[in-house]
Structure formats: structure tokens, C-alpha cells
Amino acid sequence: SITIIGNSVELNPNTSINAGSNQDNGNPANLKVRPAKNIQMNDFKIDASNSLLNVILTAGNDIRLNDGTMEINGGEFRADAGKLFAMENLEINSINNRNLNGSDISINADSIEMQQSQIVQKTTASGRTGNININAANSIQLLDESVINSNTEATGNTGDINIKTDSLLLQENSDILQEASKAKLGVIDIVVNSIKLLDDSGFNSIASGTANAGIINIKTNSFEMRNQSGIGNKTFGSGEHPKFEKIFYRHPIRVR
Questions:
Q1: 202-217 pLDDT tens trace
Q2: Which of 34, 107, 174, 195 has its CA 20 to 30 A from that of 143?
Q3: E strand intervals along 144-201
Q4: CA 61 to chain centroid
Q5: Does an H or E element contain 75, and which?
Q6: pTM
């Protein structure tokens, strides 16, 4: 395990951290970064070397991750920021290639911003992906082709995607989606006060091959969609078509 503590932690450009564990015994390595104030990572790579890696980031103020990649291979990613969690041009990938279930990706902060970034849970074996849990007291923004994606290419099922915040904005071709061709899709569960889907952005559950359709649940007080944005729960193969899609709201949905 690697633990980094201090007042603030900054990883400068071209930083690389390689850590891993023998995935046969199922015990992951751990990378923990927990300064009192801020975490800043720029132009970096964290690589589990084809094995399991848990990454735990905890900061009293902000966590800012820019121009980097994290490959954790079914391990856990958890970030807890006292104020802001921000990603720009960043990839967090958890590719589960084992016959054991993957761990969750969880982010908690006052505000969460994703710019040209992606969070991916994926399984290529019989093990299930972990859940994706994104929680912010104030706001969550996915901007400029940012994606939160849970998908399976094999018999392992996808986990759930859980979004909780006051204000949720998806803009400029950004998506929250799940995909499957053989296995079972999970649930996209969104609980927010207000939602804006702008400029070809949306929530999507896509089943192909023999996969059955997933479920999208949305609870909100205000919902606005503009410029070819929308919600899709689709089946393109022989699997069951969507039976229901719940949207709970107090005011009319505005579509422009």
C-alpha cells in the first residue's frame, strides 16, 4: 500500500504511479492520498498493472484531477472532497476481467465538475461491475462530451448508477448511460432538485443482442431539455423491451 499525507498534495506533470496485486488472491493494493487541504494532480497516470488497485482520495477542500488516467481494474475508487471535486480531460477506468464482482466508484463533494472526462465501469468476464455513486450537496456538471458509463461485454451484469444532488447539468454531448449485449443492465437512479439536459446530452440505457432493457428512475422538481437532448431506454436485440421508466416531478418538463 501507498499512503500520502500532508497539508496539500500536488503531483506535477509526467507523474506515474504503478501499483498492483496478484488478482488470483483477490486482495487489492491500496493508494491513499489524504491531505488536510487540497489534492492537485496534473498530467499523470495511475496504473494497476493488470491487477486490482483501490484509490482513496480525501481532502478537506478541493480535489482537482487534470489530464490523466486511472486504471484500477475492478478495484475501488473513492474521492471525498470538502468543497470541490473537479476532473478535466481525465479518464477513470475500472475494467473488471475477473470472475469476481468489481468494487464501486464513489465521489462525494459539495460540487462536482467533469470537463471532457469519463468515468467507466466495465466487465469483460462473469463478474459484475461495481456501482457508480456520484453525490454532491450543491451541483453536478458534465460538460463537453463527459460521460458516466457502466457497461458489459460478457455475462457479468452491470452495476447501478446513482446520482444525488441539488442541481444536475449535462451539456455539449454529455451522457449518463449503461450498455449490455448479453447480461443484465442495472438501474440508473437520479434524485435531484433540478435537471438541465442541453446540446445533445441525455440519460440512456441501451440493450443489444440478448440483453434485456434496463431501468431509468428519475425524481426531480424541475426538468429542462434543449437542442436534441433526451432520455432513451432502448432494446435493439432479442431481449425484453423496457417495461417502465419512472419520472417523478412536480412541474411540467420543458422541452425546447
A1: 999 988 887 887 889 9
A2: 34
A3: 147-152, 161-171, 175-180, 187-198
A4: 21
A5: none
A6: 0.92
